[in-house]
Each structure stands twice: as C-alpha cells, then as structure tokens.
Amino acid sequence: MSLPTTRVDMNTTVDPNRSAGALLGLAGGNARGRPVGGLPVQAINEAHDRLTEMVGGGVHHQLPDTLTDDTDLACCIARSLVARGEFAPTMPDPRSRQGSTIHTV
After folding, report:
1. Which of 51, 53, 56, 94 has its CA 20 to 30 A from that of 63?
2. What is the pLDDT of residues 7-20, one digit of tens each?
3. Is 49 one of the annotated binding-site residues?
C-alpha cells in the first residue's frame, strides 16, 4: 500500500512510506535494546552474551515486545507533525488531555 506524499513547506516533501519505515526501525531497535538500556557493556555481555532475539526483563521486568517511552514520544510527535505540518517546542503534548506542552532541551 502506498501512501500519498505530503508537502511540509514549499521546499520539502515527505514520503510517508519512508517515514513509516523510520518509525518501525526506531521501534524495533528500541524494543530490542530496552532490556539492556543504560547497562555497561560488561554487564550486558555477562547477562546475555549476545542478543540475537527479543528478550524481556530490564529495569521494570517488561515483556519482550514492550514499546519504549522514546518510541511512544516519537509516534506522538509524528502524529502531531502530520496533523499540524510543523513542530514547535511549546506545542500541546499529544499524549495529554490536560494540554501540557512538550519541552525540548
């Protein structure tokens, strides 16, 4: 299925298939690395030797297919970009019903 190309401004077009692929790659990479996030290499090697499949665990003992907060936020920002055509650091946080804002550093 091919999605229509979206024009963001006069000089930029976005291929939604490439955007979707980027989000899928981000989600897969984050889910695979989530159980060992923040651990030193030696601890990862001792616990897993080599990660060749999705595993559970991590700080919160989550299931192997648990999404990360990074993936969740990236998807929220992507939804906002599609809806608004822009990103502003003070735009309403799309995850919030209270209308808090997304702050960038």
Report:
1. 94
2. 556 567 778 888 89
3. no
